[in-house]
Amino acid sequence: MPSIFDNIEKNLLDGLQHALDVAHQGDFCVGYFNLRGWKQVAENIERWTGGEGHQCRLLIGMNRHPEDMVKDIFSTKEPEPIDNATAAKLRKTLLSSLRTWSVVQSRNR
Predict the structure, then answer these.
(1) Lower CB density within 10 Å: C or N end of the chain?
(2) Is 56 in a helix, a strand, or coil?
(3) pLDDT, tens digit, 9 for 90 and up, residues 27-46
(4) d(C-alpha 45, C-alpha 92), whole Å
(5) Partners of residue 59 on adjacent β-strands
(6) Integer CA distances (angstroms), 109 to 46, 52, 79, 84, in order
(7) Could you tell me if 26 and 20 are in contact, meaning their C-beta atoms sit under 8 angstroms apart?
(8) Dist CA 5 CA 14 (whole Å)
(9) For 70-100, what is each residue's pLDDT tens digit?
């Protein structure tokens, strides 16, 4: 029977950590991902040996609603330009994120 986690009577983190402790691999699909959350389960996953069938695979992203895509296609409004400071900040955030993923992935190889 499936478990329902409401974070009141049944805590999702406790259930997830227990499931990871008895598993040897995991495939997850999430809409959003924050590295602070990863830290809470990293120890459980790092016990796995890595490689085919003994790894964590994480698919991150949400599909855009079709109505939003149609609005973008038919929009007559030009995208607003961003200033150099904002562009530099976004670039730094992206590079930091990619470095983190590279480290996590290379540990499992």
Answers:
(1) N
(2) strand
(3) 998 888 888 888 899 999 99
(4) 28
(5) 29
(6) 12, 9, 41, 38
(7) yes
(8) 10
(9) 787 787 777 778 889 988 888 888 777 655 5
